[in-house]
Design brief:
The complex is a heterodimer of chains A (330) and B (318). Chain A is mainly alpha-helical. Chain A has a two-stranded antiparallel sheet with strand order 1-2. In chain A, helix 2 crosses helix 12, helix 3 packs antiparallel against helix 4 and helix 8 crosses helix 10. The longest helix of chain A is centred in the C-terminal third of the chain and has 27 residues. Chain B is mainly alpha-helical and 318 residues long. Chain B contains 14 helices and four strands. Chain B has a two-stranded antiparallel ribbon. In chain B, strands 2-3 form a two-stranded antiparallel sheet. In chain B, strand 2 and strand 3 form a beta hairpin. The longest helix of chain B is centred in the last third of the chain and has 28 residues. The chains are: A mainly alpha (330), B mainly alpha (318). Chains A and B meet through helix 5, helix 11, helix 13 and helix 14 of A and helix 6, helix 12 and helix 14 of B.
Chain lengths: 330, 318
């Protein structure tokens, strides 16, 4: 067994601390009960609620690993949800609907990829366009209304159980494992890290750097599209205004907390999974402690700053300097 | 000529848009609509001016919308709830905004952290703090507020310019002087163009970067105060997503988002384009509000591609 990297250890420590804090006030925090053949309990709740952020963050991880960022995922979630409502309410099948939503997400990602990789537009700027326009497009599809979706299969996708476990976390976990193997057991992960580290050098090394970059955006778009399906299925409606609201922020946050640097060049899929889990556990903790949802962003902000500082070379240098000075005086 | 091409394109688009709206809708081409372009968008404009300076330096500030929300509920709580004089409340609010900006700038500069991430944290902090003060909208009743809301300067018979529009013009003027006639503005553009060479030239890079986030925080707080005057109330959810509009306005105004290149006058033109689209959609009545987002997105795309090819052209020449 390889030794776990420091960032993963930090995450596990953070999770452990949060769980301890919760156990202190509520000993039943970790309890999982079986009711009607379904698993119930706070941990299941956390996994279920956090699964959508995890999925968006999965795509975002690869984009950030290439040194980019995708701000448009929230809007893509809204568009994908709107597409689901449009198709299902016109009697289309579930498979076609999901394929269409995924396709729309991948297409949106392709547009972002084209702008970033081919036309060399800064990622923040390129994806800002779709972030602004995308929600408008979703509202256009929905005609500004919240469209109720009544479809048994679709509902099952959002709220159903397989072997007692809710579907969304199962699906997302499977995708994480599949992605991990797809990028770590092939050269794909190495390509992505090479492009993120130094695009020019990887280009000269014979890598189709632009294509690698563009494909990560397509993947991220597809992940956002699938998240849109899950979100719409969960609330049984397409809400162009609220679906995927702040999804980009939560996803970026999960990726950064997971130890993937915003500058690109390396990434950790396990880290992202744990990062998203940590954020959701924090949110659930707030909720159970009766912290008003409006104030909940504050601890999140403090966590971002703490993680950013932990990753800062400068601060590490300072702390290391203090350590050395102490040794010298001793 | 080439340096001012984005500015000329922005001005041309504004003229075309306004002209088209004036032809399409009766009564669009009037002093009243023109003045409203300024007064209805005053707080967005003030935020965009501050954002322009930050973007000049190659940075970004996502916290402005949340700071506007916090300032508005903070001012309303003090004035309406505690009976504090508006002047005192305003001073405190601007000081708090500047303080948050300074803190973010310091973190970004000293620890070399991404501006995107730190201002995102600032956004969460300010929004959370605003909702912590009050989750509901608070109405403000004060002679000063009523006086300001009704204050107008009459020019001739028909044109009356309200206080918000005057303040916006003053801030634009101040921003113009800071950006293009002061050493500070020149340093900002130098940092945005190439930070290491700005440092090697002996420019005060660190101090300038911290100062620009501080200034922007103060600007956002001022925008929040204007918003309380405009709506006569404070609301913690005011300005959600406003930072995106502000960034869009700056980019449509021809300023390079990577920093180092741009003009304050462009931001004013961008604001007027934004306002014209909004006013045209209101005038039409049939167009839904979401067309606003789609048109702004399309304009953003057009400008970014235009800049892309301009910068590439300049690179080839050099």
């Amino acid at each position: 067994m390889k030794r776990l990297p420091a960032s993963i250890l930090w995450l596990l420590a953070g999770l452990f601390l949060l769980v301890l804090l919760n156990l202190a006030s509520d000993p039943a925090f970790l309890k999982i009960a079986v009711r009607d053949g379904h698993l119930y309990g706070v941990p299941i709740d956390i996994l279920n609620q956090g699964s959508r952020t995890m999925l968006v963050a999965l795509g975002m991880t690869l984009v950030i690993a290439t040194g980019g960022v995708d701000l448009s995922v929230g809007s893509v979630i809204a568009i994908a949800g709107a597409v689901c409502a449009l198709l299902l309410n016109q009697g289309a099948g579930l498979v076609i609907t999901m394929a269409a939503a995924l396709g729309v997400g991948a297409f949106a990602g392709g547009v972002n990829g084209l702008l970033v990789a081919r036309w060399h537009v800064q990622p923040i700027v390129a994806t800002l366009i779709l972030m602004v326009a995308g929600r408008g497009i979703a509202q256009l599809i929905c005609d500004g209304q919240v469209i109720i979706i009544a479809h048994a299969g679709f509902e099952f996708l959002g709220n159903g159980f397989v072997a007692g476990v809710p579907i969304a976390p199962l699906l997302v976990t499977a995708l994480f494992i599949a992605t991990h193997f797809a990028v770590r057991k092939t050269a794909a992960g190495l390509f992505i890290e090479a492009v993120g580290d130094n695009e020019t050098a990887s280009h000269f090394a014979g890598l189709a750097a632009a294509r690698v970059k563009a494909l990560t955006y397509v993947f991220c778009g597809a992940c956002a599209g699938l998240t849109g399906v899950l979100t719409a299925a969960n609330i049984r409606a397409a809400d162009a205004n609220r679906a995927g609201e702040n999804a980009e922020l939560d996803a970026i946050f999960a990726v950064v907390v997971g130890g993937t640097a915003l500058t690109g060049g390396r990434f950790s899929i396990l880290g992202t999974f744990l990062g998203a889990l940590l954020i959701q556990t924090l949110a659930t903790t707030m909720y159970y402690r009766g912290v008003p949802p409006a104030v909940a962003p504050v601890p999140k902000a403090l966590l971002i700053i703490a993680v950013a500082l932990l990753q800062s070379e400068k601060l590490r240098g300072w702390v290391a300097g203090l350590w050395r000075r102490k040794e010298r005086t001793a | 000529m080439k340096r001012h091409l984005p500015l000329i394109v922005t001005a041309a688009i504004l003229l075309v848009l306004f002209g088209a709206a004036a032809i399409a809708y009766d009564g669009f081409f009037s002093a009243r609509v023109l003045v409203n372009l300024f007064s209805d968008n005053a707080f967005l404009g003030i935020a965009a001016i501050g954002m322009t300076l930050v973007i000049f330096s190659g940075g970004i500030d996502l916290s402005v919308g949340a700071v506007i929300g916090f300032t508005s509920i903070f001012t309303a709580t003090l004035v309406a709830g505690r009976g504090v004089h508006p002047l005192v409340a305003w001073t405190l609010a601007v000081a708090l905004g500047a303080g948050l900006g300074a803190a973010m700038g310091t973190l970004i500069q000293i620890f070399n952290l991404p501006a995107f991430l730190i201002t995102l944290a600032g956004m969460f902090l300010a929004r959370g703090a605003g909702f912590w003060l009050n989750t509901e909208s608070v109405g403000i009743r004060h002679p000063w507020y009523e006086g300001l809301a009704n204050f107008e300067v009459a020019i001739g018979e028909t044109v009356r310019i309200p206080a918000a529009a005057l303040l916006l013009l003053a801030v634009v003027g101040l921003g113009y002087v800071i950006a293009h006639h002061m050493r500070f503005g020149r340093t900002l553009l130098a940092i945005g163009g190439n930070e290491p060479s700005a440092r090697l030239m002996g420019l005060p890079v660190g101090a300038t970067k911290i100062a620009v986030y501080t200034l922007n925080g103060a600007c956002a707080a001022l925008a929040g105060i204007v918003a309380t005057v405009y709506t006569g109330s404070g609301n913690p959810s005011m300005g959600v997503g406003l930072e995106l509009d502000a960034i869009a306005i700056v980019v449509i105004g021809g300023t390079l988002l990577a920093g180092g290149r741009g003009h304050m006058a462009g931001t004013l033109l961008g604001l007027l384009i934004f306002g014209t689209i909004q006013a045209a959609i209101l005038f039409d009545g049939r167009l839904s509000s979401w067309w606003m987002r789609i048109v702004v997105g399309a304009l953003l795309l057009a400008f970014i591609l235009l800049q892309r090819f301009l910068v590439r052209g300049a690179g080839k020449k050099g």
